[in-house]
Amino acid sequence: MVLLRAPARPRHPRMPRLRATTLFLLLVFAVAPTGADNGEQPVLHLEGGTSAQRENIRNSLNLARYPCELPDFRVRRMLRETEELARDALRAIGYYDAVLETAFEPTESCWELHIEFEPGPPTTIGLVDIQITGEGARDLAFEAVRLQPGIEPGDVLRHDQYEALRNRLTRIAADRGYFDADLHTRRLEIDREDRRAHIRLHMDSGDRYRLGAVTIDQDILAPEFVQRLIPFDEGDPYSSAQVIALQSNLNASNYFSAARVRPLRDEAEDGLVPVLVELEPRKRHGYEGAIGYSTDIGPRLRLRYDHRYATEHGHRYHAELEASPVRSGIGFNYEIPLDDPLRERLNLFTSYRTEDTDTQTSERFRIGASRVLQHANGWQTTEGLRYEYEDYTVGDDSGHSRLLIPSYTVSRREADDPMTPRRGYRVEGTLQAASDVALSTTSFAQVIGSAKVVRGFGRGRVLVRGDAGLTDVDAVDDLPGSLRFFAGGDASIRGYKFQSLGPRDDTGEVTGGRHKLVGSVEYDYPLAGRWSAAAFVDGGNAFDRFDDYRAVYGYGVGVRWRSPVGPLRLDIAHGPDSDDNFRIHFTMGPDL
User: pLDDT under 50 in the chain at which residues?
Assistant: First the structure.
């Protein structure tokens, strides 16, 4: 049995011995050509073997480093060197008994190297012997490698896979705090007669270190509050994943512009590794202004002010102003982090909004509170209680309402890209109600749901959207305009004006309905650069009783531009039941 020894060449018995590491490097070795004399380069011709074998040889040879003019002694040297590199390239993927023929052929412009080879039978894996001693012997991460090393008996030997397995063990040791680990046996044994390779990797992991005290260098928040962002306790087993999670938590908190987390391994005492956290605070005050446009509400101005850390316990608030010809308002939200600052918060809010459309006018005042909880499974829940006062006119119906509304919302969003995903979805559902015996002018119960799915299809994408609302109320006239359902517009059924679809009164005015069912299917196809084209069909309606439900449809085409601030959409849509031959719809914002 030969340990890490290459086979003897049939015609060159003094071939040097190469270690497995050298063969691995030859496997991935590829040097960009530097060019030969007068811009001409030598040409390599390979015959025999498989495409993978030829490609590995080609990546190992760099003929461009040789000039076109070669004296005879350099030709002989070049032939020896290239043949040896070709053999090593085949050994690196398990072929130790290759037969090669090389030939040098001058040409008018330079020269050509011809290599014809027969790889011979492969060397296969015989034994994979992985042993872990020390505290790591009970670690499931090491056990997973031992049970599923990624190399099985009977596989063709590949030196890169052996190196990857060896590196996997050392990486686990470093990531999980076995800083004294010793991979004392690391052998790749080649049995030339049987063409078998035996892998032996034996590691003494030593003791696992523990996470020590965390020192946080910052002066804007109370130390006890920042401690709540630490995902581990002092004395927990060391894990680089936990260190990364700490840095991720600090960045996700939005209190800091930069976070640097450093385990101080050189300062470890009694197996405890102290952790130093250095933080740069964000600016205390933030200002934002935006101008937008959509067909439904026209030009829009939005201004926002953020106070990012109003108290040392992480409280913050923001105020927002919106103005447009259709909808304007002002709002204020005060946020209080709860037990888990990243996943649980209490919002105290108030707002005043006016709305003036062809269908309704309203003035609405809100005040309330909500508890938002981000669950570990990805779902977010919001428990809310708000008081609303609204003056409204819908068609010929005018009134005012006072409602105390408890609500519960569940939502989830996943996407492979935040702006223009090829795969993702958004889903949200809300249950809300009021009672005339609890500070409300009417009683109702309402369920609202929406979902959107994006999937890649060929070069393009399919986008499917659905919106539904169901209301239990004695009379729809008892509901303010903000709680009735309408259809039509940019985000509903294109081809129809905003809120132009739904039940009508005796004069033909749209008054809104108890229920709504709307859906859409769209196909988005890339054109060039950031541009794409789309075709769509929308359908549905708002209605008062299920017996009266009559779906209307709109369809059309559009263009999309992925701008730096998000997708811009321009659609031309036709609604067969619309008063207009076609309508132009313009929107912007993320797909989900």
Answer: 1-37
Which domains does the chain carry? 2-118 (3.10.20.310), 124-204 (3.10.20.310), 210-281 (3.10.20.310), 285-588 (2.40.160.50)
pLDDT tens-digit series, residues 438-480? 999 999 999 999 999 999 999 999 999 999 999 999 999 999 9
Handedness of CA 375, 379, 385, 386 (dihedral sign): positive
Which sign does the torsion angle of CA 347, 349, 354, 359 carry? positive
Helix (H, G, I), strand (E, B) or coil at 29: coil
The pLDDT assigned to 565 comes to 79
CB atoms within 10 A of CB 328: 17
Q: DSSP character for 27?
A: H
In terms of C-beta distances under 8 Å and separation of at least 24 residues, what long-range contacts does 99-106 make, across chains too? 99/10, 104/75, 104/78, 104/79
| Beta strands at 272-281 and 298-307: parallel, antiparallel or unpaired | unpaired
How far CA 387 is from CA of 89, 277, 360, 439, 469, in Å, comes to 75, 43, 21, 9, 21
pLDDT of residue 39: 60
C-alpha 398/C-alpha 13 separation (Å) is 103
Encode burial over 141-174: b for 16+ CB neighbours within 10 A, e otherwise.
bbeebeeebebeeeeebbbbbbbebbebbeebbe
State the DSSP string of 144-189. HHHH--S--TTSBP-HHHHHHHHHHHHHHHHHTT-TT-EEEEEEEE
Distance in angstroms (rounded) separating the CA atoms of residues 405 and 500 = 27
Residue 590's alpha-carbon distances to 49, 135, 454, 566, in angstroms, are 51, 49, 12, 6
pTM of the model: 0.79
Q: Helix axis angle, 159-175 relative to 140-147, nearest 10°?
A: 170
Residue percentage of the chain with pLDDT more than 70 = 93
What is the pLDDT at residue 28?
A: 43
Q: Which of 153, 116, 149, 115 is nearest to 130 (CA)?
A: 149
Please state the φ and ψ torsions of residue 560, each to the nearest 5 degrees: -130, 140
Q: Cα separations (Å) of 579 from 502, 573, 575?
A: 15, 13, 8
Reduce the DSSP state of residue 12 to 3 states and report it. coil
Quickly count: other Cβ atoms within 10 Å of residue 92's Cβ: 24
Tens digit of pLDDT for each residue in 61-119? 999 999 999 999 999 999 999 999 999 999 999 999 999 999 999 999 999 999 999 99
Count helices and strands in the chain by DSSP H and E runs: 7, 26
Residue 286 region, left (φ>0) first, then alpha (ψ -120 to 50), else beta? beta
Q: How far is CA 299 from CA 138, 320, 324, 353, in A?
A: 64, 17, 6, 17
Instruction: Measure the CA–CA gap between 393 and 480, rounded to whole angstroms.
Output: 8
Q: What pLDDT is attached to residue 522?
A: 98
| Side-chain-facing half-sphere of 111: CA atoms under 13 Å | 20
Of 37, 28, 33, 85, the residue nearest 62 (C-alpha): 33
Q: Reduced to 3 states, what is the DSSP secondary structure of residue 500?
A: coil
Amino acid code (one letter) for 9: R
Task: Kindly tell me the sign of the dihedral angle through the C-alpha atoms of 140, 141, 146, 148.
Answer: positive
Give the residues across from 46 on adjacent strands.
115
307: Cβ–Cβ under 8 A, 6 or more apart, which residues? 284, 285, 316, 317, 318
